[in-house]
Design brief:
With about 525 residues, this protein is of the alpha+beta class. The chain is about 45% helix and about 10% strand. The protein has a seven-stranded antiparallel sheet, with helices on both faces. A hairpin with a 3-residue loop joins strand 5 and strand 6. This is USP8 dimerisation domain-containing protein. Keywords: Coiled coil.
C-alpha cells in the first residue's frame, strides 16, 4: 500500500533534488569515502543542534546514501583491512535514521502550521474583497442617484411659450396704466422707433413701462428673435519670417577648448555581468570538432592494437579490470625502450604480464577476482617487487580534467625530464590509461594508450594508440577523450555543479596522474 502523505512531503522532495548522487571509484581509497561519511555525520549533528532542519535533512540523506549505496560498491568494501570502519558506519546509520525521523516530525508540524496560516490569510483576503465589492457597489449606487436630472417641462399641443410671455406682459401693462391715473402724470408712451425724432422731456428721466402686447407680438419681435449674430472677422494671416530663428547653441557660445569640462564618470562602478556558462553538451561538440581538425591536419593519428584487456579469460592471463596494472607496466616498458614502447610490447603487457600481477595484488588485499585496484596499492606493490624504481618517480598531478591549467600541469610534469623519455598513468572515470612522451628528431611526440577495446576501421576490435605530435594536440586529445566518457548523468552534474576541491572524489571530472621519467 502506498504510504500516506505527510505535510512536509513537498518540502522534503525539494530538498532531495539538491542532493548529488556520487559514483564510487575503486581508483580512490575506500578510506576517503569513510572519512567523508564521518564529516557528513558531524555536519548532520551540528545542524540538528542548531535546529537548521533543512541542512540537517540534506546531510542525513547524503550520509545514508553514501553508507548504504556508494561505499558497498567499492572493491575494497569486504576487505578485512576496513572492518572497523564498516562496523562503525552501520552503527551510526541507526542513529541517523532515528534522528531523521524526529526531524521529519518537526517539519510536519511546521508545514501544517504554515498551511493553517495561509488558509487564514486566504479567508481574510476573501472577506476583504467582499467588503470592498460591497463598498464599491454602494458608492456606485449613490453616484448614480445624484446624477439623475429633473424632467423637462411639457407644453400643451398647439401652444407655445411665447404666448404665455405675451399674456403676462399685457397684464403688467394694464396694471402700470392704472397706477398713473389720478396723480396728474401723463402716461408715458412707448418710444418711437424713428431714431431721428427728437427726445421728449420725459424720455430718459423716468423708467419706461414694458412694451405692449402688440409690440411684443409684432414683426419687430420676430425680427429680433430671428437675428443670428455673425462671427468676428478672422485675424490677418501671419507673414513668414524672412530668416529662421536663431538656434540655442548660437545663443550660448561654448567655452574654449582648454576649459572644456572633463567627461562625466559614473558615481558607482557598473557591475559586470557574469560570463554565461557553456553547457557541457555544447562543449563536447566543440572538443570533438577540434579533435577532428587535428586529425585532418595530420597532427594526430589513431592506431589499432591487436588485443585489449579481458580478451583472454584463462587463469593467469585474464586482464579484466586490470587497467591499474596495465598502464604503469606500459610506462615501465616505455622507459626501458630505446626509442619508445612498441605495439608488440604493449600487447605483451596486456595478454601476458598483467595477469600474474593482478592475481598477486588482489590476493594480498583480499579482493575479489575482478575487483578494481587502487593505483597507490599497485605502485607500492611494483616498488616492493622491484618492478619500478622509486627514483624514476617524478610526481603526481590531478584535478579537473576539463580545466586547461590542471591538464597543463600534467603536460609540464611530462616535459620536465627534458629530452629524456617520460610516461604517466592517468586515472579518470573509473579507468586508467598511459601517456608516453618521446623525442622524434626535433619534435616531441606523445602517445595516449588505452587498453579498452575500440571499434576500428574494418570492424577490427582492439586497444588504441593515439599519437599527438605536439603538446597542444595532446591537450586537445585529452579534452576530447575525457568529454566522450561523460554520461548523461555526468553532463547534468557538470552543468549543475562548479568544480569543488573538497568534493572532487565524487566529481566525474576528477583525474589523477603519476609520472615517471628515465634516469
Amino acid at each position: 500500500m502506498p504510504s500516506s502523505s505527510r505535510p512536509s512531503d513537498s518540502r522534503r522532495s525539494r530538498l532531495k533534488s539538491q542532493i548529488p548522487s556520487p559514483v564510487v571509484s575503486d581508483h580512490y581509497p575506500i578510506k576517503n569515502y569513510y572519512d567523508l561519511s564521518s564529516k557528513l555525520l558531524t555536519k548532520f549533528l551540528d545542524s540538528s543542534e542548531t535546529s537548521d532542519l533543512d541542512a540537517a535533512y540534506i546531510f542525513a540523506r547524503r550520509y545514508m546514501h553514501l553508507v548504504t549505496e556508494v561505499i558497498p560498491k567499492h572493491g575494497y568494501y569486504n576487505s578485512s583491512a576496513f572492518r572497523s570502519e564498516k562496523s562503525s558506519a552501520k552503527q551510526n546509520m541507526k542513529l541517523v535514521m532515528e534522528e531523521l525521523e524526529k526531524i521529519v516530525d518537526v517539519m510536519d508540524v511546521e508545514e501544517a502550521a504554515k498551511r493553517e496560516e495561509l488558509e487564514k490569510k486566504r479567508r481574510e483576503a476573501a472577506r476583504e474583497r467582499e467588503r470592498l465589492e460591497q463598498e464599491k457597489k454602494r458608492i456606485d449606487d449613490q453616484a448614480a442617484a445624484e446624477l439623475e436630472l429633473p424632467s423637462a417641462p411639457t407644453f400643451t399641443p398647439g401652444t407655445a411659450p411665447v404666448f404665455e410671455v405675451a399674456k403676462n406682459l399685457e397684464e403688467t401693462k394694464i396694471s402700470n396704466e392704472s397706477k398713473y391715473e389720478g396723480y396728474g402724470y401723463d402716461i408715458p408712451t412707448a418710444p418711437t422707433n424713428d431714431p431721428s425724432a427728437p427726445m421728449t422731456e420725459n424720455e430718459g428721466s423716468i423708467n419706461l413701462p414694458p412694451p405692449s402686447y402688440e409690440v411684443v407680438t409684432s414683426d419687430s419681435l420676430a425680427s429680433l428673435t430671428s437675428y443670428t449674430p455673425t462671427a468676428p472677422p478672422p485675424p490677418p494671416p501671419l507673414s513668414a519670417p524672412s530668416h529662421p530663428p536663431p538656434s540655442f547653441s548660437s545663443l550660448t557660445p561654448s567655452p574654449p577648448a582648454h576649459h572644456q569640462p572633463p567627461p562625466s564618470k559614473p558615481l558607482y562602478p557598473i557591475p559586470q555581468k557574469p560570463a554565461p556558462i557553456t553547457p557541457m553538451s555544447q562543449l563536447k561538440r566543440i572538443y570533438t570538432s577540434s579533435w577532428i581538425t587535428c586529425k585532418k591536419s595530420k597532427k594526430a593519428s589513431v592506431y589499432a592494437l591487436d588485443t585489449y584487456q579481458g580478451r583472454l579469460s584463462s587463469y593467469g592471463k585474464n586482464s579484466t579490470n586490470g587497467c591499474t596494472v596495465i598502464a604503469p607496466l606500459i610506462a615501465v616498458e616505455h622507459l626501458k625502450s630505446s626509442g619508445g614502447v612498441s605495439d608488440a610490447s604493449i600487447e605483451n603487457v596486456i595478454d601476458i604480464k598483467a595477469g600474474p600481477h593482478l592475481i598477486n595484488i588482489r590476493t594480498k588485499l583480499g579482493l575479489s577476482q575482478h575487483a578494481l585496484i587502487i593505483p597507490s596499492d599497485v605502485h607500492d606493490h611494483f616498488v616492493d617487487e622491484k618492478v619500478m624504481r622509486q627514483d624514476t618517480f617524478v610526481g603526481a598531478t590531478g584535478g579537473n580534467i576539463l580545466d586547461e591549467e590542471h591538464v597543463g600541469e600534467l603536460i609540464k610534469c611530462l616535459n620536465d625530464s627534458g629530452d629524456k623519455k617520460s610516461a604517466a598513468a592517468l586515472f579518470y572515470h573509473a579507468h586508467v590509461i598511459c601517456i608516453v612522451k618521446m623525442r622524434v628528431g626535433k619534435e616531441v611526440w606523445y602517445d595516449l594508450i588505452d587498453s579498452l577495446p575500440f571499434q576500428h576501421e574494418g570492424n577490427k576490435q582492439g586497444g588504441a594508440r593515439i599519437r599527438c605530435k605536439d603538446a597542444e594536440t595532446l591537450a586537445t586529445c585529452i579534452r576530447w577523450y575525457s568529454s566522450a566518457k561523460l554520461t548523461s548523468s555526468d553532463i547534468d552534474f557538470v552543468d549543475r555543479n562548479e568544480w569543488d576541491e573538497n568534493m572532487c572524489d565524487f566529481d566525474p571530472r576528477v583525474f589523477q596522474s603519476f609520472v615517471w621519467a628515465e634516469k
